[in-house]
Amino acid sequence: MTRKLAFEAIENFRDFGDYGAGERHIRKGVLYRAAHQAEATDADLEALGALGLSLIVDLRRPNERTRSPSRRWNGFSAELIENGEGDEHDDPWHRFIAASDLSAKAFTDYMVDYYREAPFVGRHVDLYSRYFQRLGHTQGATLIHCAAGKDRTGILAALTHHIAGVHEDDIFADFLLTNDPLRFERRVPMMRQAILDMTGREATDEALITALGVEQQYLETAFAAIHAAHPSLDHYLETVLGVDSKTRAAIEARILA
Questions:
Q1: How far is C-alpha 164 from the chain's CA centre?
Q2: Which of 111, 143, 208, 255 could make an S-S bridge to 32, C-beta 3.0–4.6 Å?
Q3: Under a CB-based contact definition with an 8 Å cutoff, are residues 106 and 112 in contact?
Q4: What distance in Å separates the CA atoms of residue 23 and residue 188, rounded to the nearest whole number?
């Protein structure tokens, strides 16, 4: 199936449902993931409104939301989950760019370190927890997104798939769908210019594609960090994110067929 939904100016938008989950499967059209919607065109907003979204989880920091505020469609009434924690002027990604040698290895190393810490960051724990508490009680579709729709969003989508019983191979395959050559072609010149404006230095195509994409080792690193601190992913989900048996049953009833 084609998971990617075509929007004019919203990137990395796709359905992460319709995967097999043991003897069941995730329904199509109930789970979406994407990058931010600040650049959405009017046609994009009309298409978003037609998806029947009743829950949107914005995983971005406050400064990201201020810099790129989400556009909404007419009649918007979806429940919104976001987090207000964080220094408005502190951006770890920008600090990294300023100090980095802008090599592909530097971007990879940064992301591996990021994924090692991400499951335990207080903001993420809060957002992920509230998402799972609400997911089983929504009447419409759910959209999770961050800035690029690949890292914070990727971890949360993977955890959702785990709860549903999706095979690990499919979890990683879905994660890697972010590596869209057309998206890279469109975004590399824009990112090169942004970094040049910020640092006065120019990054190579290899480094920029590394920054825009994901690698399987990133998600493996997040899972390994969880396993290092907990007996299992399920233990982490229950003790850190509050996904107890009742919450899990509600989620399964909502998204599985």
A1: 17
A2: 143
A3: no
A4: 41
